[in-house]
Structure formats: C-alpha cells, structure tokens
Amino acid sequence: MRQTLHAYPLERLLDVLREQLDLTGTKEGCGEGECGACSVFINGEIVNSCLIPVAQVAGTEIKTIEGIASENQLHAVQQAFIDCGGAQCGICTPGMVMAAVCLLEKNPNPTEADIRTGLAGNLCRCTGYMKIFESVVRACQK
Description:
The protein is mainly α. Helix content is 37%, strand content 7%. The radius of gyration is 15 Å and the shape is globular.
C-alpha cells in the first residue's frame, strides 16, 4: 500500500514508522545502528531504520515486521520463535526475525555458520542466543 506522509526530511524512518504509521513492531534498541532491533526491509534489503532519514526512502518498498506474516498465517520463522522460546523480552525479536527471514530467503538450507553470520549485528539483551538460534534451525525444517 502506497503512503504519502508529511515528515522532516532528516527524521528517522524508525520514528515515522512508529509514530505516524503506528507500526510499533519495529523497536528502538540503541538508536545507533548497533543492535538490529529496528531492522526493516527497504527494496528487499535489510537495514537499520534508526539510521535512515525518511527522505532517503521516498519511492521505495518498505516491509516491517508487521508485513512478515501472510494473512492469518505466521511466517515459519515467527512460528519457530514461539515454539522454541526465541522471543523473550521482545526488544530484539523483530530484528532477529527480520534477519532470519532475510537469511532464509537467500539460503533456505543454511549451515550453523551461515545462521550465526545471518544473525550477526543483532543483539539480545536477555543473552538468549541459543533459543534464537534453535528457532532459526526449526524454521529451516519447515
């Protein structure tokens, strides 16, 4: 769905998504592009929305965590996070899911090293990396 918004050109994409479009699934973890909690897809590429000025995304396709599920069906990664307890406090979960979806779109059968590389740049405050990793492995099996 195409949206026209009024925003300051240097306003962060993260803030526009959350405050103007009520897409609050995308989280702010650090505000410096270090944690991955604010990850979104812009034209199919994963980016940290806290680093992107809204003027830079004019005319692009943006997908947030809200767009990962299809109709009434969770994405396999989302379901695996539920099944394996990969979602803990919730701050990193959207970014981790986005990174895992990105990985599996490019490589449906990743190795352990591929998964670790695919999730790199996403920090978990709860240090629950094993459950997150297990969630991605489970999603690969579906």
